[in-house]
Amino acid sequence: MATPLDELLEILDLETLEVNLFRGRSPREDRQRAFGGQVAAQALVAAVRTVDDDERDVHSLHAYFVRPGDVTTPIIYEVDRTRDGRSFTTRRVVAIQHGKVIFTLSASFHRREEGYEHQLPMPDAPDPETLPTWSESLEPFLKDADEGLRKWILRDRPFDMRTVGEPDWVDRRPLDPWRQVWIRAAGRLPDDPMVHEVMVAYASDMMLLDTAIRPHKTSVADHGGMLASLDHAMWFHREFRADEWLLYSMESPSASGARGFATGRFYDSGGRHVVSVVQEGLIRPPRGKK
User: Fold this and answer.
1) CB contact at 8 A, 80 and 40
2) Where are the domains of the chain?
3) Is it true that 1-112 and 128-290 share their CATH fold?
4) Are 237 and 276 in contact (CB under 8 A)?
5) For the whole model, what pTM was predicted?
6) Which residues are catalytic?
7) Which of 4, 80, 198, 284 fits 226 for a cystine, CB–CB 3.0-4.6 Å?
């Protein structure tokens, strides 16, 4: 039987319709709208498919979530080959459903070359193998959860995640606006670097915006208001494998005007800073609550 990781890889393997035109679909899940990380990852796949130089890797992407994605309808990705330069390649991707733009992405690819190297130290974090699994860490929350939510939480996932400290679903106190999660694909991935970059693009949207509501006595489980990604940017600094442990260290320096701002950094287990992420999202409180 196909695993959740197999199914995710299939979702991210777009169908080519024509030159610069691709089609993707959403997984068969009970969601109100398409997951933002899925749309961003699929758009990145579409951009990569139009870059012919194998020596060029994505080094940055900048995206806007324009409309909610419909999970029942395929998404069309149209790529504009903006520029092919000596060192850099630029692509713009537009995601379309029902004749309307739902998402835009600009991505830049850089020919590999040597240069200066430095980074700030990786923050302290416990060994992921000493931490409980995602399901184990949520056991206290599951005691009072209804059967539908229990099944959704305990379902097999394409990623193995280990939260540092109790998840905010369990600890309902106001919490500091930062969190750390170890994450890796739940199985071996192909050696193609693009697969690993796309998987991290998908994962980068899974927990980042949640960080911005941690100080406000709520969590994604019982928020009751509106949480939605507005824009998303990533920078890929060094090669990595998404099927080996990566520490996702996140913080939210600011929230105001019903928007939350959050940043994240991925580190491999050797302490190398491999990816940076920045996101702003809508965090509209429930009516009557601030």
Assistant:
1) no
2) 1-112, 128-290
3) yes
4) yes
5) 0.92
6) 205, 229, 279
7) 284
